[in-house]
Amino acid sequence: MMLNAKFMGQLDFSIDEKSITTSLSEKACGVLCYLMMSSPKFHYREHVAGMFWEKSDKNSASSNLRYILWIIRKNLDSNGKKNQYILSPNKSTIKFSEEHICGLDVFQFKDFIKKANTHKSSETDRIILLKKAAELYRGGFLEDFYIQDAPIFNDWVFYEREDLQRLYFQVQFKLSEEYVNLRQYNQAILPLKKLIKIDPLHEELYYRLIKLYALSGHRIAAIEVYQQLKKTLREELNISPMKETQTLFKSISTGRELKIPVTLPTMMTKNVYNQLVPYEKAGIHMKFLMVSSKSKLGESQKKLKEVTLNHREVTIEIGKLPGKRILYEGIYEIIEEYIKLLKNQDDSSYLKETLLELDNFKEINSSNEYFLFQQLCSMLQRISLDRIIINIHHLHFYDEKIFDFLSFLSRKCQNTNITILGVFDTSWDHQRFQLFEKAFQQEENFEFIYL
Amino acid sequence: MNVDLVLYNGIIIQMNKDESIHKSIAIKDGLILDVGSNEDIKKYIGDNTLTIDLKGKTVVPGFFDSHMHLMPTSINELAINFEKASSIQDVLDLIEAKRKQLPPKSIIWGIRLDEFQLKERILPTKNDLDKVAPDQPVFISSIEFHTVTVNSYALHKMNLPFTINSIEKDSKGFSTGRIYHHASFIARKKMFEMISNEAQVQGLKTTIEKIIKKGVTSLVAMEGGSLFHDRHADFILNEKDKLPIDIAIFYQTTDVEKVLSHQLPRIGGDIFLDGSFRSRNAALFEPYSDSPGNRGVLYFSQEEIDEFILHAHRKDLQIAIHAVGGRAIEYLLNAYERVLGQHPKVNHRHRIEHFELPTAHQIKRAKDLGVILSMQPTYEYFFREPHGMYEIRLGKERSRQTNPFKKIVDAGILIAGGSDGDVMPVDPILGIHAAVNHPNHNYRISPYEALKMFTVNAAIGIFEEDTKGTIEKNKLADIVILDHNPLTIEPTCIKDIKVMCTIKKGQILFEKDLGEIV
Lengths: 451, 518
Description:
The complex is a heterodimer.
Chain A: E1 3-6, E2 12-15, E3 18-19, H1 26-37, E4 43-44, H2 45-52, H3 58-76, E5 86-90, E6 93-96, H4 105-117, H5 123-136, H6 151-181, H7 185-198, H8 203-215, H9 219-237, H10 243-253, H11 267-274, E7 285-291, H12 294-310, E8 315-318, H13 329-345, H14 348-358, H15 366-382, E9 388-392, H16 400-412, E10 418-425, H17 431-440, E11 446-450
Parallel strand pairs in A: 7-10, 7-11, 8-9, 9-10
Antiparallel strand pairs in A: 1-2, 2-3, 4-6, 5-6
Chain B: E1 5-8, E2 11-13, E3 21-22, E4 24-28, E5 31-36, H1 38-42, E6 50-53, E7 58-61, E8 63-68, H2 70-77, E9 80-81, H3 88-101, E10 108-113, H4 126-132, E11 138-142, E12 147-150, H5 152-158, E13 167-169, E14 175-180, H6 181-194, H7 197-213, E15 216-223, H8 230-239, E16 246-251, H9 256-261, E17 266-272, H10 302-314, E18 318-323, H11 326-342, E19 351-354, H12 360-369, E20 372-375, H13 378-383, H14 389-394, H15 396-399, H16 405-410, E21 415-417, H17 428-436, H18 447-453, H19 456-460, E22 479-482, E23 499-504, E24 507-511
Helix pairs in contact in B: 2-7, 3-4, 10-11, 11-12, 17-18
């Protein structure tokens, strides 16, 4: 029996290609969806019950959950095999079996993306993988699915919906770029048109489309896309297209020859750079620009510098100079820059207090490392600003301790608005970073962007 | 000849060129048949003639409102008004009360929520709103229009693209329900789409009834556009002929072809060339007093506004554009000047909406170009107290220079009066009062000039002076009866004048305390 689950678009569960969705209640669908999406994590029954029966008392919620799980198992288990999908390792926990997760479209989607992102894939492989990923995205996560008395679940759905939509955007952007690399401009157009249907106000999509039409010799189509953009922005937002788009349009309408870069001129990269600091996201967020060439390295570092310029009062910047760091050097660079920040803020009493505290760590070893990290976390939390940004330019030169600290920070400062931006040259073999990437690749607040 | 209606024994202010005043009117088949003395009119009275002894009351032409957002006003009739809310609990209580009045699952929307009036000093979140309305969409517009707060149900229903990046998150990364900037535009549009036609009709009916009571018989509706929804313009186009008063529509779009397809003679309206003083985005020459470095925003480049105006002008459309601050007014005058220079047209009657802070030179240019100014005096009534909004934004000196009615009238420019409803109340009497009692004495105009703004000038403002705007033979019998004469009453008491009767095409639409109608 093969369980397939489609969560992108309208929700559907099927066993051996026969839909069983209507046999499950709304909450049963929700519970099953939640467990599948979080496989292979264990969940406390109490937590899942609270998610779906928030207003009920514990016993009622627990009883409801038991019933729902029974319904689910009744529909899924067969051939005399019980509990093959929903596992209960003990009385208080449940999980969805990772053995059966491969039938989930979201899992397949992310898997295709991950494979396409590994720099070992060839261009053709990447295109195939990205296309497969794109085809799986039939619509928003659990489209139109909403459980009226389960706000925590609904919040989670909304969160996942955003995550997957953004991933889908990345997929289509990358697919378009891959076709451009192969000079297949007509093929590069379709992914962008699909994205415009989702976000018709996304100007960068139009920019790319205009350029692609022009490069493929369809000048009239390029002009029409620009006119459409202009009209849409005016009607919906009462604004004009960006200067770059207007300049592009002028070039095309006057018949000026457009330069053909190997990759599309940085609209995707520009998009990445535009959103380097995720203002709308509270809490800690880490973004790593994984660059594979010297030019991309330079470009990314330049963008980090712009972030510093624009946020001077709240940015700690380290690693501007190349060269392999010694153990703990990165930690001390952060401390030094932090002290400079305090001096600039003219907070002398706090500065004095901080310097005294740091005196305790003149000699670091494995026994006081925890306390040093903890101290550094407290220091970052104590700065009374909206957000702190830590820019690390040559991340690949840093010792393992910086990654130990970033990992520590992600656990201890979850609710502090900290943005870590790092540039990592993928031509460097850095085992500690590879472990770090593997551990956090799927985490919501971590992004590893391959440029 | 017997007529349908005779009003006699009154003060009939005709608002014609001669500034005539008579005693009585005879109305037949919806038109004014005659105006004259009580003796003159007697001959028209027959068995079936309704007669009204005005007993000295004053009659003026039916009022125009030259600038009103009819559908948003109508929709807001059914909204919760959060003006008086002083805490998040107040907000929730109001929503709960509304929810009980509505059928299940109906959309609930609210307006004018100001977080600075709440004791918590923050907007509610979706979790707050979910407590009182978990099963139906809730939308709350903030007072400055750029923020919308929604509940979870609405958030899910709206399907906003996340790449728009203006959806606020909490520390766990979950949406708070607060939506800003560009996303708020989309959210408002989604909200408008969820409001049923039945609700719109209900709101429209209530609004029309209210404005009839204020003596309005003709209305210039600014509908559609980025802040609202094109659905509104289409709705009014379909409904207007069923309404008891006349509605002229400015479709708020720069899409000339769309307007032509609707066979409308005019385009624009409140197309924002700049913003407002309140939001600090009206485009000024000097920065705002309470926002250093900020001179406001121009939403079009000179080239873009020129292009639009040229296109519309060449299609023989009357054009109206919103320009509040001096820099926006400059751009607009430049555009009109350029276009009229290239394609002269006598009697174009292109308009500038608001024209709130012009320079003397700009007033002269407006006169030379023959543009009509559509202005809303009531702003002076509400925003001009000491330490009021105008003073805070513009500073003491500059705030004294807003809405220079006298300078404009003396320059020979026609001002069409309006309300900007429902930003301001629809109340022509209040508008007249505000123009006559302008806080800057140098800008005060006479009651007669103020009355012209809401009658004959407003009719000229949309090419309807042949049929309306004055009380003259063969014009539509659009008439308002007032309990006092605005020309003779103590100027500070103009706002207390009551509308006793509103007559449209000879039909009594509203009447109160008028006495015996025989």
